[in-house]
Amino acid sequence: MADLAKIVEDLSALTVLEAAELSKLLEEKWGVSAAAAVAVAAPAAGGAGGAAAEEQTEFDVILTGDGGNKINVIKEVRAITGLGLGEAKALVEGAPKAVKEGVNKAEAEELKAKLIAAGATVELK
What we know:
By secondary structure, the protein is an alpha+beta fold. The protein is built from 7 helices and 3 strands, in the order H-H-H-H-E-H-H-E-H-E. A 3-stranded antiparallel β-sheet has the order 2-1-3, with helices on one face. It is globular, with a radius of gyration of 15 Å.
């Protein structure tokens, strides 16, 4: 169990670029990606409205919570949005709030992955 705690601590210390690189390496190693998991889950949850979800081209990245990692999430929000410390803190504390609006699916998935890596809970709309 101590080894797992060390891994979590090491992962928490990664920069955004390092986390993105780690994500790519894990995708290559195991042949999976976060985007694929979301793409599979969306049609199952969509039901009759699935056709409308497939046509969606713009997404809003909504921060729903900091997952107890407020500092890491604030850092990530600042990196994504370019906001100052006070504005990013207010956004995180005011969740649920939009971090980015009207982005394409690939960018939305990338931002979601970065925020989740920082410990946040996120949804795409």
